[in-house]
């Protein structure tokens, strides 16, 4: 049944799923965690938050403990429905229950927090990732991460800059850029282009000239 649900979702045949659920009930088949997870994925893809939440609540009522795939599916359901407060709430629940995210979790959360322009949550996510790697820290700046022997990658900087664009804040973007240079990080083309487009769109010629001057330095 789980495989069939997955197949229907992959082919976007969402209307066939309720009939399959009814067949399960008539056959007295007790849904497993895998079945519930596939249902969550299906409803997330269909952007059907109501059914996703019903499935989530039913799963918990059956005394089934959500695992990482189930949490990822529910995060996707909330994300596609733009229920951002519920995304944060579920993310907190995962941390409280000791459920460690994977690359898919982090990519999803970074994307959501970036769209919100939520720099605080982006930094919190980075801190959690460092803790999961066995490097406990309470740092909030790129330069501090570097001094502590931690490495924020280009993706982290990119998402931070995206949040600055959301806020249309050249000052915050400049601070991220300055911190990155202070931390001896070499920017990639995407980061440079992001800053150029932001400064041009906001008419900040002073920052644009400063950026160009920085790019003439050795190593850049």
From TrEMBL:
Top-level taxon in the UniProt lineage: Eukaryota
PPR repeats: 32-66, 67-101
Gene3D superfamilies: Tetratricopeptide repeat domain (1.25.40.10)
PROP1-like PPR domain segment(s): 2-90
Annotated Pfam families: PPR_long
InterPro entries listed in its UniProt record: PPR_rpt, PROP1-like_PPR_dom, TPR-like_helical_dom_sf
Keyword terms: Repeat
NCBIfam families (alphabetical): PPR
Protein name, UniProt field: PROP1-like PPR domain-containing protein
Organism the protein comes from: Eutreptiella gymnastica
